[in-house]
Amino acid sequence: MNNKVDISFTGRDHEYKNAPTFSWIKEGATAQAVFTCSVCGQKPITIEATLDKVNEYKKPGCIGSTEEGYTYYAFSAQLNSESPRYEYEFEVVLDPVPHKLDSDGICTNCKKPFVQVIFNRRTDGVLQQEFYSREENGGQVVIKDVAGNVVTANDIIAPTVPQQTGYEFIGWKFGEETDITSYAIAAKIYEALTSTDATTITVEPNYAPVAAQAQITVECVAGEVTLSTKSEQAAVGQSYPLKAEKTLQKDEKTYTFTCWANDKEGQTVLSTSEDFQIAISSNADKTIFAIYAEQGSATKPVEVKPIIMSDVYTSIVNGAYKLSFATTRAEIPEGYTLVDTGFLYGTKQSTFANMDITALEKALILGGTTENLKTQAVSGNAATNALTVNLGTAEANRNYWVCARGYLRYKKTDGTIITEYTDVIKTTYNKEAEKNNAGTSGNE
Asked: Domains in the chain, ordered, with CATH?
């Protein structure tokens, strides 16, 4: 509301200027207005003011209309019973209001027909709305904006899509389509305006979760000597390729690649192949070591374990705490056939684990499956597999101990089955979350 008011008058030894906005009330009633003396700075005084309407109220025009809504008021004020009464007339201009359409597409204010095009937000609320009218001209449908200008598809502009943390915009959803570009959506809307009788056309942005990223650091080392280091981001749930140079030079010495390992000493060997892939299981930072040996130095044979526990990580999914274990197996020797890989595990609070955690750990070390242990086999030929233990939503469950070890079974041509085991991992959710400075990967 735009009040064209500049009121000044003098009473006794004081001059009072510029009345503030009134509280608009019923015609003929009184309102209070505060005036401040601009001469002496006297504390503002409150006077009674009567508002009298002097012409008929006119409804404000709708958005895009050239009509102005306005009304006139007469202001009457008296400082006290001895001072004269001052009269002042002012105009109130009413701001245009948005069109509000009924079920037939008729604006309830200006009574004109419109088509409403709404760009919704991802969550509740409208991002942008426009109003158009349809007119017949020589058998053709002509689209006009609220100002009466003819509109083409090029005149329909999609709004800038707000960024959503953890998501990326992949297109507008309209009808059955879910990935329409901002450029193409204009043509879709224009087609709907000209070829349908719809009174409301609604589109909304479509987002997809951004893949979680983990920082992978590759260190090339030879004992205490660091030959090179590089780090980059890798998408969780994807395989990350590793490629080692056969030889590296440093300080006029030559070093030869021996293996990939999870530790700097090369105790947990992942592979002896220069080309290798690891599965990125969580968003926890991870360091992989390329182990080298100085040429001419005495080196012990690299022991490649058939299967190792290559990663432990945490996540929170729908409020539930989850502890995951990943194994990586070596290539099956020539002449042997993979049977399966999997996990033996148990938790102190589980219904199937009635023994204490020490006895449970011993049973795991022995490699046996008992009523106190749970087994999960993994089908397929993947080199890396994962087990996820759901600990529930209770905060106390973050400190429950979990024991797990991976196994690998393969058989000879004569049918003999050989079983290999990883070391036993005994840990809690909190221990791993603290280790990784994470614990909240997944959908919270």
From this structure: 2-94 (no CATH), 115-209 (no CATH), 211-304 (3.10.20), 305-444 (2.60.40)
